[in-house]
Write a structure and sequence with these properties.
- It is a single chain.
- The chain has 375 residues and is of the alpha/beta class.
- It folds into two domains: 158 residues, Alpha-Beta Plaits; 194 residues, P-loop containing nucleotide triphosphate hydrolases (Rossmann fold, 3-Layer(aba) Sandwich).
- The chain is 41% helix and 17% strand.
- A hairpin with a 4-residue loop joins strand 6 and strand 7.
- The longest helix is centred in the middle third of the chain and has 25 residues.
- It starts with a strand and ends with a helix.
Length: 375
């Protein structure tokens, strides 16, 4: 997966319901490409380079992990969906929607079909004015001037008028604002870490990830479960308790809430599957002492994946010590989670079946899961 990039896009429309075209384009960018972090005012401007009806123009800032060329393709698909016809020749034409990539992080791209920064940006006041609304201090990589400075230097004399129209941002950064602690749980390979990470990035949450890779007993356990099950589960319990206690207690002024990719009860669930009855009874006594002192999440989300899909995910991520995990083991783990959730009437639980979803590669699936979690 590519890293998230800050991207600036110019939007224009001079056919049909111009304002509605801009709003629909922003909605589709959010639904298919990435989060929208800022939207400029809407300006009415002369057609640039040809005679036609006036345009409505705006600029937006988004974040996305799409590479520049796939981003360009996605924007062209949105243009097509909103009725833009394929351009005939090299002349400028009226269009219901026009989407141009202005900046892609600090990258400079010089290809036949894609030039970033946009080549005509510095000459177009209808682009610079809305861009200055949301990124006045962003520096052009080639001119080494800020957008505000480029606007002052621009010699474009075309008409530009601020409208009273205000575009709506479909991205709600505060949709988790009523929650202090969210736990994302699931079986091995269910995608809980990926989902917790995406939520933390998108909604400014403090992220707590289980440090399972540091556990020296884990590869030994997969080789000889009978011998290493008890020390493995005890070490996991101690590590999870310390990490959750420390990280949840450390208040962070710069994040909105905490999201963790595991719950302390995971220890009990796995121990019940891996330990013989006498060892599990001893283990449970230790667990009960710890559990009563743990802060409980405001929301416990369980990602259900069918066993076949779990095995595919485990094989795909390629951890050597996981490759011999058997279907029966995964099914017993799932039963353990279900038993725990049923035994906790005071815990707010949401079970989401993600067996047919791919929220890592498919943004619509990801947004669907967010709607199921917080509406």
């Amino acid at each position: 997966m590519n890293s998230l990039q800050k991207i600036y896009i110019s939007l224009g429309s001079n056919q049909g319901n111009r304002f509605e075209n801009l709003q629909m384009a922003i909605n589709k960018i959010y639904q298919t490409i990435g989060n929208v972090h800022a939207i400029s005012k809407v300006y009415e401007t002369d057609a640039w380079g040809f005679k036609s009806a006036d345009f409505l123009n705006c600029c937006i800032e988004i974040s996305s992990d799409r590479c520049p060329n796939t981003l360009l393709t996605a924007l062209q698909e949105i243009e097509n969906t909103l009725g833009r016809k394929q351009k005939q020749g090299n002349n400028y034409e009226a269009r219901p929607i026009d989407l141009d990539i202005l900046f892609y992080g600090n990258d400079i791209i010089e290809e036949e079909k894609l030039q970033i920064p946009h080549l005509e940006l510095a000459n177009r006041k209808f682009v610079l004015q809305p861009l200055a609304d949301i990124a006045p201090n962003f520096k052009h990589q080639k001119f080494t001037k800020t957008i505000a400075e480029l606007l002052l230097d621009c010699t474009d004399t075309g008409k530009i008028t601020t409208t009273k129209n205000v575009l709506n941002n479909p991205f709600d950064i505060h949709r988790f604002s009523k929650l202090n602690l969210v736990t994302i749980e699931g079986n091995i390979g269910s995608g809980k870490t990926s989902l917790a990470t995406k939520i933390s990035e998108d909604f400014n949450a403090k992220l707590i990830l289980e440090r399972f890779a540091d556990n020296a007993f884990l590869p030994k356990f997969y080789e000889d479960q009978t011998r290493f099950a008890f020390p493995l589960e005890m070490s996991f319990l101690a590590d999870r308790y310390k990490q959750l206690s420390d990280d949840i207690a450390q208040y962070d002024l710069f994040t909105e809430f905490v999201v963790a990719d595991y719950h302390i009860s995971k220890s009990l669930t796995f121990a019940k599957v891996t330990l013989p009855e006498d060892e599990f009874d001893l283990y449970r006594r230790f667990f009960n002492v710890i559990y009563k002192d743990m802060q409980q999440p405001d929301l416990y989300v369980y990602l259900y994946q069918n066993t076949e899909r779990l095995l595919q995910n485990i094989e795909k991520r390629g951890r050597d010590y996981e490759q011999n995990i058997q279907p029966d083991y995964l099914e017993n783990i799932n039963k353990g989670y279900v038993e725990f959730m049923k035994s906790q009437p005071n815990l707010k639980v949401k079970v989401i079946d993600v067996s047919e979803l791919d929220f890592v590669k498919n943004r619509k699936d990801y947004l669907h899961i967010l709607d199921l979690i917080v509406g």
